[in-house]
Structure formats: structure tokens, C-alpha cells
């Protein structure tokens, strides 16, 4: 009787249902799933932790030539950018449409509803998108990831371009759905404020602070490589969604005529296209951009692996002594 050779590695279907989430298993599953016959967006800035590279780069990203040049012509990255475009279009459409629906109900608890809605919305979209693109769906996330050294420049630039194209499509569809008159009355569903009540400087300051809080939480619960080992690899998207819901609820009551922190330039671009008014767009872009720069400085100064580096330096010092 001829014996069949045993498979060299377990399949994803055979491992997932039967084995508990131990650190050893997480380490094994952290290998890119491309090697198992699956095409997955595997890079350090992905919200799907099991597909992130497990080997740290020895060369800092800002000294790595490939970080800036490799991947511009990669079909996989271009396809991932198309996924980002579609996901951003769908998210912007549903999000802005929901705001207009809540406003039409004249509910006094709109802040709480927005917080809950944002939590569910972003969580579902990250779960749906992260295998194919990493699940950014937001230029703020992509821009900060580029500066933090976890999203190579070609991928990041193509993602942002895709996100803007998707947002433009969503804004045009919303104009058709609402009509120009209603779109102007409801301010495109988001990203607006009343200058007579709140100054542009106040709104900008809140955008910077709230965006930084969202980025800090998103990196901590979604992109920190230690989270998959400590809490399991599947909670990240839910916790990122909860972070957005928490901050959006907390900032929703700052002033009348201002819905609180937006923290998504693509979504605000869609709202501006829907209402055909680009006024104060600089707030919704530069606020998250400043927050992204601050977060990147923090991430590069104190990276998740800083304790490992310190321990390695101590061991080298002891061996030299």
C-alpha cells in the first residue's frame, strides 16, 4: 500500500477551529498567508495582525530605499488601492447618509447614536477590508502609517489616491440621492460648523486633539504587534471602531452647529462634494495631518519594540564587560 506524505504545514481551516489561541499558534499564524495559497495584503500597517511580517527591519525605514521606491508597479498594491477606493466610497456614503437620517428624526440623543453607529460602522468595514488592503479606509491612518514607517510610500500614496476617488464617487451619489437643495440644507451630511458660534481655530484645535486621540488608540489596540499576542488577533477592528465611537461621542456636544471631531479627510471631501461647498476644507485635512505627524514622532521615538532594543543593548553591554 502506498503511503501518502503528510502535509508540511496545517491548513488554515484545520488549525483555526481546533486550536486555542496560544502565543505559539499566533506566532505560527503570523506568517504571511500568501504562502498558504491566499493573496493577502501583508505589511506592518495592516489591521489584520496575522498577516503582518514577523521579522523586524534592521534598517530604519527612512534609510531604506525600498520603502520609497519598491512597489509602485506592483499589481497587488494597485488592486489593494482599488479595494480602499471601494471601501472608502461605501463607508463615506453610509456614514453621511446616516447622519442625515438621524438629523431628520430630531432626536435629542444624537451624540449617543453617532457614537454607537460609528463603532459598528468602522468595525464592520475594517473586518471586511483588512484582508485585501489592510483596512485603512482613511487618509489620516494611511498618512500617519507612512510617517511611522509601517506603510511603504508607494502603497500609502496609492491608497490615499484611491480613498479620494472613492470619496468623490460617494459625494456625487449623495448629491443625486438627496438633490442639490437638500444636500445644501444638511451640509452634505457632515464636516461643517457654524462660524458665528464656533471659530475655525477652535474647530481646528479639536480636530488635531481628537484625531491624535483616535490615532493613539488605533495604533495601541490595532497596530501594536503585541496586541495580537496579549488579547488575540481578532479584537483589533472592534477596538478601533470603539475608539472612533468614543471620541466622536465625546466631541459631539462641543457647540451648536458643530458635530464634533471628523478625523477622516476622505469622508469630509465626500461631504463637500455632496453640498458643492469646499469652505474650510483645510480644517478637515490639516487637523488630522498634524495629528498624524505628532503620532509618527511618538511612534518612532518610542516604538512598540523599544523594550526589546533596551534589553539587547544591556546584554551587549554585559557581554562586553
UniProtKB/TrEMBL annotation:
GO terms for molecular function: channel activity. The keyword Ribonucleoprotein does not apply. It is a multi-pass membrane protein. It comes from the Eukaryota. Residues 1-30 are annotated as: Disordered. Pfam families: MIP. The keyword Membrane applies. It is found in: Membrane. Keywords: Membrane, Transmembrane, Transmembrane helix, Transport. GO terms for cellular component: membrane. The chain crosses the membrane at residues 67-98, 110-128, 235-255, 282-302. SUPFAM superfamilies: Aquaporin-like. Belongs to the MIP/aquaporin (TC 1.A.8) family. This is Aquaporin-like protein.
